[in-house]
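INFO batch 0412 | record 1 of 1 | parsing
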Amino acid sequence: MPIDEKSVQATFERMKEKLAEFVPETELRAKAEIVHKINRLKKERNAVILGHNYMEPALYHTVADYVGDSLELSRKAAETDKDIIVFCGVRFMAETAKILSPEKTVLLPAKKAGCSLAESITAEDVRELKKRYPGVPVVSYVNTYADVKAESDYCCTSGNAVKLVQQLDSERVIFLPDEYLAGNVAKESGKKIVFPLKTAAGLRYPDPNLEYAMIGWNGRCEVHEQFTVEDIKNIRRQFPDVYILAHPECSPEVVEASDFSGSTSAMIKAVREVNASRYLLLTECSMGDNIAAENPNKEMLRLCSVRCPHMNEITLEDTLESLEKTQYVIEVPEDIRRRALRAVERMIAVV
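INFO prediction complete | emitting tokens
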């Protein structure tokens, strides 16, 4: 089908109005035609595009039918009546969509798009923990692969982790795999937390007879672990009036030194509502650009920005190719999917 040049030009003008500060004009012109093709093709193929908050601005603000954090997009994946779900995020998110919608075709517009947190733990690790601490409920962060979810009792997101842990009818909980999120949840819940220790002989697990409330794991997000309290001190020296927002995958010390901590969606809402002229986000940098584009009257400090290399694998070009070729179809074995579904549905039910 020939390209409608007038529609492409209109797409470019809309992109320029919103994104001129973040994307060069020549790049916007090139991407406008791709955006036009994607938006036309998704209608032809009865597809929905889900865009995580960490997507590049040229994708996030143009082709995504729904944007948000893992929890919001999981809900949209469960509700959609479209035949195809294109998940512009990372692999564990696309797997979650497939767990919820097994009859749908779920596409990930990248060959891998992994995650340092998801790769920090295996299903075998969870089985070993359950063997050592029988009867203790397992809560796994949504940033895990399907086989880990299948071994878990509950899934959670950064936005509902505290509430879920507080609702459990259990004196103890195994919380996996993010070391920092677990520490922040423990602190907010008033619980003592312990972690397995890495030794030359392998992992040394906490004594099951000792008194503590949470058993964590030593996984970290390779983006959020880079932010430090020293970063915050330096920024406050330069800009004493800055409002600092940290994702709970940052260390407990960084969260403590910040003004606000919450999920990506909570951070977006906080920036909209806070009465501060300038702010700083301690999270993935493309999300910073997306928030800045939506809040032109507030100054976002461009310090401490780190791009997630896995989210960066998802591009407009690859999204188009994925739709054109039905490329990189996500499959989850049915026995794993059924067991993971219960944990994911429990995550979605927490409001």
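INFO post-check: Residues 224-300 form a domain with the Rossmann fold fold (CATH 3.40.50.10800).
INFO record closed
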